[in-house]
Amino acid sequence: MHEMSIAQSLIDIIKEEMTRHDATVLRSVRLNIGQLSAIVPQSLSFCFEVITSGTELEGAKLIMEVIPLEGMCRECKQAFGIEDYAFECPYCGSPDIETTAGQDLSIVDMEVD
Amino acid sequence: MKISVVKNILEANDRIAQENRAIFDESNLLVINLMSSPGAGKTSLLEKTIDALKNDFQIGVIEGDIQSSQDAERIARKEIPVVQINTGGACHLDGNMIRDTFKEFVFDDLDLLVVENVGNLVCPAEFKVGEDFKAMILSVPEGEDKPAKYPLMFHESKVLLINKIDLAPYLDCSVEDMKKEALKVNPHLTIFEVSCKTGEGLDSWYAWLKDAVNNRKSA
Ligand SMILES: Nc1nc2c(ncn2[C@@H]2O[C@H](COP(=O)(O)OP(=O)(O)OP(=O)(O)O)[C@@H](O)[C@H]2O)c(=O)[nH]1
Ligand SMILES: [Mg+2]
Ligand SMILES: [Zn+2]
Ligand SMILES: [Zn+2]
To answer: Is domain B2-217 in CATH 3.30.565.10, yes or no?
Structure first.
């Protein structure tokens, strides 16, 4: 269950940011979860709750949005959604595509007091 | 108050992996992160590869398992440096665990370091350890639907070894379909069809790997 280590990394970043901004209460955190990243949002939520319970972060809400995979063809320059994990251009068939969205696992922002 | 962060959550691990990479670079060491589901044949492939190439260059191995040192013992019989990491529950290796083994190796004496990750088709692909590239094994009995079900690892790997092709005649699974499905998720994969039992197909893998190590040394 790698959601545990990801929740831990997430909490490390949150604490660092809170210290930097002199914040003491965490209300919510917004995450973007790339479709390609092997994260189950419910598991991440669960791990986050387990790790934060009884700490000053208890009760904070995780707001997660799954970001679909998108690509751009380096041959024909078309942009498209990557369906069924098929990493080739649906217009010209070229495998030379750049994945422009849906790969990362990132914090977007957080609501603190 | 809203704080905008925009940070990769795995940033801390990525940073450690990068530091590991810089240390490997000093010794021009080729580092491979070898991944697969449990039992696909990672240790078997290592045993074969060590036998075939240990006169050509010096190989070191890091074995990652949740528990047990059986894989490290298998590798140690080949009389090459090996370190076992027991993750004690974690289903993947990360940059830190790899760093902790550094004191056990003399990297200047090595040409190739293979990290055998914990058997798991999901998350090892998410955590860099400082490797030059990821290689993965899919064994024939696992079925051709795996690339579509576990796309991340196929997408992140440079090399795919389809292992246990000796079993293909007994199964309703076509190696051709496996290749096709894997190439859909990653058209840039270099694919080898091998059997660690009969040795079939391994020669082209050895030749490819030899080139990779030599290119790394002269880089
Ligand atoms: N028939 C056949 N069996 C194989 C082949 N390669 C490996 N095996 C067998 O598959 C089993 C698992 O092989 P390992 O090399 O231990 O697999 P692994 O990926 O290292 O396993 P973990 O480290 O536990 O994840 C062993 O019984 C091997 O003998 C092959 O090409 N053909
Ligand atoms: Mg093994
Ligand atoms: Zn894991
Ligand atoms: Zn195109």
So the answer is: no
